[in-house]
Amino acid sequence: MSRDNWERLVVAVLKRDQIWQLCHQDSITTVSSNFSQRVLSFSSNDILGHVSSSPSPQLPLTKHSVVKDGKNASGTISQKLFSALPWRKKPKDDLVGIPEDRFGLESFSLRELLFATDNFSNKNILGRGGHGTVYKGCLADGSLVGVKRLTAQNDQVMMEKELEISGLVSHRNVLHLRGFCYTRTESLLVYPYMANGSVASCLRERNELQPPLNWAMRKRIALGAASGLAYLSHECVRGIIHGDVKAANILVDEKFEAVVADFSLAKFVDCYGDEVVSAKFAERYDDGGVNGTVGHIAPEYLSTGKCSEKTDVYGYGVFLLELITGQRAFDLARRSNYEDVMLLNWVRKLFKRKSAEVMVDQDLECNFVYEDVEKLLEIALICTQSDPEGRPSMPEVVRMLEDGDGLAERWQEFSLQNDYENENYCWEVYPEWNPIIDDSITSSNASADELSGPR
């Protein structure tokens, strides 16, 4: 084989397998790139393409490695090259090798997860979202997990994002990724199982035997979710904008501790609080459009397509209203008045009329503290101001929830501006927007955005 053909063959094998097998991880790319340079360092006199006698280590080639038959040469070279690569992980059931120690995560085989979920049986579906379906699974050791099966479109991008974020976060109110499985046909993420499902399912999809969330639980959930979001934006190694804060993405464990989940729309923030996407994934993460769920998206994001940590504050404010009222952020059942299909507009109207008690979830059967309801409503309205500069930061929200620190001053300023009277907006005026619609208004064939069960 000529030197040119040899070089092309080596490069083709490296590129083909490295790109899709290794998910383009930075550390792996560096190793493989350096290795490729060593592999392709031929001497000027090396007609057959043997590795030059430079200090670079030689490939473990045998006399059978150089043959005239191109097909045999391809198979031999592929085998020898990848057996020599230090990052090559021994595959399990066609598992594409991503080093476990790169992220400190467990690498599951497809066979393990097929067995755990009963071959992704419909009876084990916990919920569906815009980026995949979540299944309940039971591993061989008896532990319960939620397995997210990513959709084919952009599954690798979502996998990379989840893996990158998982390497940064560590907080009891943020869902941690347990492991993953990435094969030629499947992209799977494995999470701890949340026994009580999502807040949305607890509020609106509980069975007759399941008691409603009492007021103490709702206060605990409100504080836990705020703590998780405050960690993401201000305490994490890199600030993270969640991008889709809502009751469906706040999970509840067996102790009714809130856990922020689903980072499919997440972005990183820079030191000024503005959104920024890591250069590595910039072209694939940021499509230039507006993505999110109707009723949860901040108006400045709708109008400009730019988000910041204050867009999560807005989403949290709407989440508080879900927690208080038990209703969806967007619901055509309130269409007696078109503006009222937005939960926020409906709440503002009733709050202005001093009818706060009318808004409270009927499942509570008046078993709540009115002062607490008023406090949470004030925080929610402050968080959902149209001007992002007027909204508090998430650490401020945590302090308001814990002991009311700063709430009186914030509320007085908000009341003087009387901002909430003129903040109605309509999502239909943004045709370029790519919203995720709540399952209450989707057809039976459409994928619901809320993960309606534990995961």
From TrEMBL:
Record-linked Pfam families: PK_Tyr_Ser-Thr
Membrane topology: Single-pass type I membrane protein
Species: Perilla frutescens var. hirtella (Perilla citriodora)
EC number: 2.7.11.1
Claim: ATP-binding is one of the keywords in the record: yes
SUPFAM superfamilies registered for this protein in UniProt: Protein kinase-like (PK-like)
Name by which UniProt lists this protein: non-specific serine/threonine protein kinase
Subcellular location, principal: membrane
Family: Belongs to the protein kinase superfamily. Ser/Thr protein kinase family.
One function term, GO molecular function aspect: ATP binding
Domain Protein kinase: 120-415
InterPro entries reported for this sequence: Kinase-like_dom_sf, LRR_Rcpt-Like_S/T_Kinase, Prot_kinase_dom, Ser-Thr/Tyr_kinase_cat_dom, Ser/Thr_kinase_AS
A cellular-component GO term for this protein: membrane
Reactions it catalyzes: L-threonyl-[protein] + ATP = O-phospho-L-threonyl-[protein] + ADP + H(+); L-seryl-[protein] + ATP = O-phospho-L-seryl-[protein] + ADP + H(+)
Enzyme class of the recorded protein, top EC level: transferase
Places the protein is found: Membrane
